[in-house]
Design goal:
two-stranded antiparallel ribbon, mainly alpha
Length: 125
């Protein structure tokens, strides 16, 4: 993103190519999502539309042998299609006046991971 902000396109393209060659955590999908969030930061409706469109290929690119894939009416969907469920939480209006302590998410993040871990232990998954 620094390459985009400073108009150093070569730096952006180089980093994008490196992410394409090596399989990093979010790879090029993460770069596209960062671009969508950055370029549409003042236009949430456009950002939400581009976000949903970026996952449209997940509707038909699933592998029937992958246990994470979802098959509905013979259509095999890739597991990343579930990212669409996060759109209503990413793009709502945020000018509600609600103020949270700046340290709230430092507590929330590990607490939700602990809750997920406990749930896995209880369900033995």
């Amino acid at each position: 993103m620094a390459g985009l902000k400073q108009r150093r396109w070569w730096l952006f393209i180089l980093c994008f190519l490196l992410l394409s060659i090596w399989n990093f955590d979010y790879s090029t999908t993460g770069v596209f999502l960062m671009l969508i969030f950055y370029l549409c930061r003042n236009h949430p409706a456009a950002g939400a539309a581009l976000y949903c469109l970026s996952y449209i290929t997940a509707l038909w690119s699933g592998d029937p042998l992958d246990p994470r894939s979802l098959t509905v009416f013979g259509l095999c969907m890739k597991w990343t299609v579930f990212s669409l469920f996060s759109a209503p939480m990413i793009f709502p209006r945020t000018h509600s006046g609600l103020k949270l302590n700046k340290y709230f998410f430092y507590l929330f993040y590990p607490a939700h991971l602990l809750a997920i871990g406990l749930l896995r232990l209880i369900l033995q998954v």
